[in-house]
């Protein structure tokens, strides 16, 4: 306390009493801070909004998946639609023309495969015992085994009875199949409708989106959109070209070996091997081998060897050249994307994973800065291939 004039040092008689000092001291408040209820309300509202968003996302999951599929299909046909629009076509008419072309291709594929399956099912049912007898005889003669045809035929009734029971159970669930078919038809019509409007009204839709963004954000959105269209269109183009080459090569081989239904089987191999990732090659090759077995086991063996040889030729020569400018992606990355797509969205995710991954890879290459790599034994690449291999790939 400061000393009053005339007061001896150390004399505190002039100080106020403790009761007076306590009375004049500021009072401490024991009430809740005014911001705390607002913080609790904000936290509770955020949690409720998050849970509501998850609930809404779960309810709209099917619709969002349809929109993603429609966007992918719009990206796939947009290069062709833009090409027609640049030559005076209206975008709606150009989109309808692309729908007709794609529909005819799908109808031709399904019609060819359907006729093949119907004819082969009839042939297999009628001639199954003869096929088994010839196959067992060929195995015994070729490999020196002593398989018993009688044992095989004794087991056939058991297998046939089990198949009949399964088919009867499936036939009893006609109502379930009908409901599923109606749902698939409804979803297909929804995808076609969304795809048509996203393609036919593409410029107007992009103008609407860009009108909500500042100019520099508009350029980024349009650049991302262009990359997605290029990568998706490049994926369809490269797969289609590889399917055409594969179909022609397999038709020549199967027609030369006398395999029945060579044209339908070549169409099956070309489309399935290119447009179904990972397992498409095995599905595509299994059917021609099984059909060739109806002619002779040696023909089936030759078809299997040709499929294996062509697959190597495609992997090392054709695919790197065709996809170098359209969809350049490491096989391990593509396989990982396929697994991720299957885990997230099932079969649809498998089909969408690779073009989506290619678009993301292009975004990363466009926006992520890269640096020079330090020389180190762990970063030294493999030696360049031999001269004959380089010449073969250039050829």
TrEMBL record:
Main localization category: membrane
Keyword list, A-Z: Cell membrane, Membrane, Transmembrane, Transmembrane helix, Transport
Record field: transmembrane: 39-57, 63-85, 97-119, 174-198, 241-269, 275-293, 300-318, 330-354
InterPro entries the UniProt entry points to: AI-2E-like
Pfam family, one: AI-2E_transport
Protein's cellular compartments: Cell membrane
Positions of region (Disordered): 1-32
Example of a GO cellular component annotation carried by this entry: plasma membrane
Compositionally biased spans, kind Low complexity: 16-26
Membrane topology (UniProt): Multi-pass membrane protein
GO biological process: transmembrane transport
Superkingdom to which the source organism belongs: Bacteria
UniProt family annotation: Belongs to the autoinducer-2 exporter (AI-2E) (TC 2.A.86) family.
Protein name from the UniProt record: Predicted PurR-regulated permease PerM
Organism: Actinomadura mexicana
Lineage: Bacteria, Bacillati, Actinomycetota, Actinomycetes, Streptosporangiales
């Amino acid at each position: 306390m400061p000393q009053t004039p005339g007061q001896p040092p150390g004399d505190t008689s002039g100080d106020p009493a403790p009761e007076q000092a306590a009375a004049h001291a500021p009072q401490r408040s024991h009430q809740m801070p005014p911001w705390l209820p607002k913080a609790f309300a904000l936290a509770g509202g955020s949690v409720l909004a998050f849970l509501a968003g998850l609930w809404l996302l779960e309810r709209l999951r099917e619709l969002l998946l349809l929109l993603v599929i429609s966007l992918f299909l719009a990206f796939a046909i947009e290069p062709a639609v833009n090409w027609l629009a640049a030559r005076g076509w209206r975008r709606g008419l150009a989109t309808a023309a692309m729908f007709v072309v794609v529909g005819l291709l799908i109808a031709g594929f399904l019609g060819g495969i359907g006729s093949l399956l119907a004819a082969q099912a009839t042939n297999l049912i009628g001639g199954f015992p003869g096929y088994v007898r010839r196959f067992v005889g060929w195995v015994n003669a070729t490999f020196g085994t002593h398989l018993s045809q009688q044992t095989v035929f004794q087991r056939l009734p058991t297998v046939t009875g089990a198949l009949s029971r399964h088919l009867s159970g499936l036939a009893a669930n006609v109502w379930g199949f009908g409901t599923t078919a109606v749902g698939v038809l409804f979803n297909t019509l929804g995808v076609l409708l969304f795809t048509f409007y996203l393609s036919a009204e593409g410029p107007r839709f992009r103008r609407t989106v860009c009108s909500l963004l500042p100019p520099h954000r508009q350029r980024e959105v349009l650049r991302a959109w262009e990359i997605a269209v290029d990568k998706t269109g490049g994926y369809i183009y490269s797969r289609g070209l590889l399917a055409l080459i594969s179909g022609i090569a397999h038709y020549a081989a199967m027609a030369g070996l006398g395999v029945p239904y060579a044209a339908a089987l070549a169409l099956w191999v070309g489309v399935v091997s290119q447009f179904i990732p990972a397992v498409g090659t095995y599905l595509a090759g299994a059917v021609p081998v099984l059909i060739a077995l109806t002619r002779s086991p040696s023909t089936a063996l030759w078809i299997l060897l040709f499929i294996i040889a062509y697959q190597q030729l495609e992997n090392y020569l054709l695919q790197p050249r065709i996809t170098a400018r359209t969809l350049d992606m490491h096989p391990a990355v593509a396989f990982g994307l396929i697994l991720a797509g299957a885990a997230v969205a099932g079969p649809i995710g498998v089909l969408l994973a690779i073009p989506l991954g290619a678009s993301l890879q292009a975004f990363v290459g466009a926006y992520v800065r890269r640096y020079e790599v330090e020389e180190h034994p762990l970063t030294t690449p493999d030696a360049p291939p031999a001269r004959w291999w380089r010449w073969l790939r250039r050829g």
